[in-house]
Specification:
heterotrimer; A mainly alpha (291); B mainly alpha (330); C alpha/beta (325); A: 291 residues; mainly alpha; MetI-like fold; 11 helices; 0% strand; elongated; disordered C terminus; B: 330 residues; 2 domains; 77% helix
Chain lengths: 291, 330, 325
Amino acid sequence: MINTTDTNTRPSSGILTMMGLNRRQRTIITTAVIGILLLSIILGGLLLSNERITTNLEARNQAPSFSHPFGTDWLGRDMLTRTIKGLTLSIFVGLIAAAISTIIALVLGIAAATMGNRVDTIVTWLVDLFMSIPHLVALILIAVALGGGMRGVVIGVALTHWPSLTRVVRGEVLQLRSTEYVQISRRMGKSRWWIAAQHIVPHLIPQMLVGLVLLFSHAILHEASITFLGFGLSPHQPAIGIILSESMRYLSVGMWWLAFFPGLSLLIIVRLFDILGDNLRKLMDPYNAHS
Amino acid sequence: MQTKDLISFMIKKSIRIATLLVALCLISFLLIYMSPIDPVQAYIGADMMRVGQEQRARIAEHWGLDRPPLQQFMKWAASVVKGDFGTSMIYRRPVLEVIGKRFASSLVLMGAAWLLSGLLGFILGVLAAMKEGTWVDRLVKWYCLTLASTPTFWVGLLLLIVFAVWLGWFPIGLGVPAGVLAEALTVGQYIKHLILPAITLSIIGVANVALHTRQKLLDVLSSDYVLFARARGEKGIVLFWRHGLRNIAIPAITLQFTSFSELFGGAVLAEQVFSYPGLGQTTVQAGLRGDVPLLLGIVIFSALFVFTGNLIADLIYVLVDPRIRQGGAL
Amino acid sequence: MTDKKDSTAENSPAYTSNEMLLEVENLSVAFRQYNKGLQQMDLKVISSLNAAVKKGEILAIVGSSGSGKSLLAHAILGILPKNATVTGSIKYMGNELTTKDQERLRGQEIVLVPQSVNFLDPLMKVGKQVRTSVRNENPVEAQRRVFERYQLKQSVEGMYPFQLSGGMSRRILVSTAMVSGAKLVIADEPTPGLDPKIVDEALLHFKGLAESGCGVILITHDIETALKVADNIAVFYAGTTVEVAPVADFSGTGQDLRHPYSRALWRALPQNEFIPIEGVQPLPQNLPCGCFFQPRCERATASCAEKQPEAREIRDGMVRCIYAS
């Protein structure tokens, strides 16, 4: 199904093609399937009881089996349940952080493009400032300053992911501003706010939605990284970063499943979000869907 | 471009980075100042229980931690200007000395990964573009897109499982206390410790260069000048050598230089997984143990590192691309 | 859009001689495309196209943009994109031109003079680019000789394409053809947007090439340019040849021309009656039935819409019009 991300005009050889569906239909179906998959993981994470992740010393250190597909850890906790709960947490952290980031980008981008040269200079400078240090170092700095934990991670990820999207928004608004109907509105004496609400924001909403989903995957990856390093979520929380960082102590005795499955699941989730974002972009703007 | 222009270009860039660095110092300092970190505790470390209230106050006084924030900032700023960036609380050495030593070993790791990923990414990108639409192209694209979604540290863990635990080719227990490792190693052992983290970093780094090179080469191959080259009987390797390579090499190399930011971030994660005693691991230590001067020093240093990469990328365009180099000649 | 592959024999042009260099008969080029529903469809952009050129002769191919002129050049050289299919026949020196021949001959016996400086590698010095076209002699000597002939200073060889002036780049592009020792030169739109002096100079170069025994195909949208140097003029319309006529026929009120479109083109020139032609050339996606020109033709009748007219020879020329005489 990854075929649908193919930006070529060449037909892909996927099952959906064989069913005689066109690109648009295939894209919609793939998007829906991914959406349902992600939703069911979230639901699973919320609904799964904590029973399977309480300490159960009889079932500890088990390799993957039918009853424990992802194996169990040194406390006998089921890794599949831990992974799903961790993913749910990651998705939530990613969602909040990406949403805040998107709002920052929206506000700063519009401000830069509409409020005159001075504001533009300041916003551009801020973007440069945030891009001047490695992403991860900025994350560590903010997380440390906020004392780590859930709050530190969410704010840290939110505060470091807006710059690139801000640039996109700024460019987009500048382009919209030069269009004829906005020029006419201005000459007719409409206020800035009226123009922004009537003409600019409606055009930006689809872009923002796509931006949000694509930021999402970055946010999740960075949340996992920072948690892995020990600056993020606390060890009691079932986060993928925590699971993987704990697993390091048990790799040398051969408990590979502790690292393999949770990481793979994270990879798949991130990839799914990426495909979702790409598909949304194609559906909204099929002609400029080249990344 | 004339020397005069080049100099003014450099001056402009330097002013820009200078303002950014000043702001960065100020903001970082404020962030840390407002944080719940207790620098005294960071200094004392594990001896926490044996240190009384009075002693703590004396330590705070010694480090100037009892002064108002502005004075503290000025003191730190003075040490930055002086060039030693203050004293690291966990290493008890000047920050710049700690950074310099750690960075040297990170540089080996990052350099190896940078070269490897650059070369490999370039080759993969070229292969994909030359075989556009075939399974080779699909495979390269799939690999790159998947890699872009992969957590760096997880790749490290997988390599650790396969090559250290299962195959036993490399040492697993790299978790020797920080600081001991670097001095006690022979060159052979050092290289053994270098290989897995370098490969981890390269595997991730390949994606960006490969995708970019692929797109760039596709653009070149559909250009008018390649059409004309084909009309003159050029094809295959000769065509690629004469026109493809020439036109995609500069963008690929500059892209590699602008990737210093991700390289540094990747190194932090890879060094943590493999307990590689570089600047990345030190960053994590400084953050976790609240070593404020060291953390601030690393923030500033990493900004300079990223800036250097961007500057080299700009300079390559200015110095190598004839369209810019000789732009004013006619 | 009937493919007249089978009718080649009966209407091979009468102006064939043993000096014939290139003969294109009933050439069709189609592109495989995928429409919105991803259904595969073949878009025919050239259909039943004819052209022929002898040694020492200049054939001008005239048509407005979108008439398939450049694609003809690419088809002869075999550098069409992969999704293109070619039917019909291209004969070079009396023999059918195979893909293998094309690979061997292009850049050597058959060369292209492209339209603009964009066809030169932006990062390669022009001297070197001219040298890569040299086949049988010392590249540096050949390049210097041709530069001298075109009054290009030796310092020009160290320049990059972006540094060239319009006239200079024109001479460089012609140089690439000159040094290769070609027998057939295809110049694709060689005089776009150049001032008249440079146009005349460029045309002189092609005249010179023809006098040295080359066959020259001059592809242009500008009939006036064509009239200055060509021996024969082929008029293209919507991907097909409507007429091939000796240059002398373009005179007076166009009474000697065979096809209404050529006549209309001629009369549309400022120095003649300056009457523009009504309507626009149809796109390859929606060609009219029968004669492609029939919806715009003042002499069209019901039978014109029935089928595409066969190519016929009339008075040393070729025409696709059932009423031509």
